[in-house]
Write a structure and sequence with these properties.
This is Transcriptional regulator. InterPro entries: Homeodomain-like_sf, HTH_RpiR, RpiR-like, WH-like_DNA-bd_sf. GO terms for molecular function: carbohydrate derivative binding; DNA binding; DNA-binding transcription factor activity. It comes from Rhizobium esperanzae. There is one protein chain. The chain is mostly helical. The protein has a single domain, classed as Orthogonal Bundle (Arc Repressor Mutant, subunit A). It has 6 helices and no strands. Helix 2 packs across helix 5 and helix 4 packs across helix 5. The longest helix is centred in the C-terminal third of the chain and has 18 residues. It is globular.
Amino acid sequence: MLKDRDSPPPSTLQELKHQIAGRQLVFPGSLERVAREILEKPDITAFESAAAVARRCRVSPATVHRLVRHIGFQTFGEFRAMIREHLRSTVASHR
């Protein structure tokens, strides 16, 4: 991980994607596979539990929680709230 541990987590999904594209955030091993799945299907992730995401990605729930902490969030719920906000703003901008 290249990101400073003291910096706050990304506030939007776009910010997270920007950090990944800029290599400010790098995922080791299976975390990259889970991150790709979440970024490709945020609409599904927004309503799943960490255990459901883990099953979909064929990893343990602990791996999903490690990913969330790696990004900078304390809990999966905080991460999921950021994704839900992204979906809300996306829908609102299309009205």
